[in-house]
Amino acid sequence: MSSRVGKSLYGAALAALTMLGTVMVAPPGHAEVPVPDARGERAVSATITVEGAMDGGLTRYYGEGELGGGDQTEGQPPIFELADGATLQNVIIGAPAADGIHCLGSCTLRNVWWEDVGEDAATFDADYASATMTIQGGGAQYAADKVFQANGAGTMTISDFQVEDFGKLYRSCGNCSDQVDRHVVIDNVTATAPGDTLAGVNINYGDTAEFSGITIVGDSGMGVCTWYEGNVDSGEPEEVGSGPGDNCRYDRSDITFE
């Protein structure tokens, strides 16, 4: 049974057990990212805007109504939208997760966990080159496509993070209408199979990805960095290579396989 099918069956079972007051921690036979126990729950029917700092106190937030799709449909609204300079911390995003979190400029996500990634976990939409999106701690699982999507300009840093059952941990937009050079630093990250690749960058726009302290669990063939020829709003970008180089900066010593 595939992990996707297993997840769907698990979701139905979990809903039934919840009605009976029973909590199941993980799908049978599937080791999960260690999401903390939630200290409360909140259904979200309209995007929550964060300005300044918000501490969720490890509340689980999940979508309903317009935010209740829970699939890979493009253009879904996010659970949270962070203004330039905002910080969101100690939050669990449950299912359905819609389009997770949108950062409109520089932002910090600290100890944020995704139990079941919807469209994407978080999207970086800054419009200035000095913008930074910082992800410190936390983890994500069940991302059929991307975990972190960079659509705007600037640099994303992902550190002390855990990810499992995913397509790409990071992707620089391959076909946005406005293309710029984008950058990511990935440090002290544990990626557990199944997974496609840790980062996808557009080499023709000067993207860079830097890696250190990476642990890959369960799949020695998982990609570290994949090269694409990006385009401007004209279809899926072409994959043109992978591995270390000018755009993908790491040594073999930076990657540990377990």
From TrEMBL:
Please give one Gene Ontology molecular function term for this protein.
lyase activity
Q: Which Pfam families match?
A: Pectate_lyase
Residue ranges of coiled coil:
none
Q: Where is the composition biased (Basic and acidic residues)?
A: 248-258
For this chain, the family text in UniProt reads: Belongs to the polysaccharide lyase 3 family.
**Catalysed transformations (reactions):** Eliminative cleavage of (1->4)-alpha-D-galacturonan to give oligosaccharides with 4-deoxy-alpha-D-galact-4-enuronosyl groups at their non-reducing ends
The EC class name is lyase
EC number(s) of the enzyme?
4.2.2.2
> In the record, which residues are listed under signal peptide?
1-31
Just give the chief location class.
secreted
Q: Where in or outside the cell?
A: Secreted
Essential cofactor(s): Ca(2+)
Q: Region annotation Disordered: residue ranges? A: 234-258
- Explain the purpose of this protein: Catalyzes the depolymerization of both polygalacturonate and pectins of methyl esterification degree from 22 to 89%, with an endo mode of action. In contrast to the majority of pectate lyases, displays high activity on highly methylated pectins.
Q: Which UniProt keywords apply?
A: Calcium, Lyase, Secreted, Signal
Q: What is the lineage of its organism?
A: Bacteria, Bacillati, Actinomycetota, Actinomycetes, Actinopolysporales
Q: What is the name attached to this protein's record?
A: Pectate lyase
Q: Which InterPro entries match?
A: Pectate_lyase_PlyH/PlyE-like, Pectin_lyas_fold, Pectin_lyase_fold/virulence
Record PANTHER family: PECTATE LYASE F-RELATED (PTHR33407)
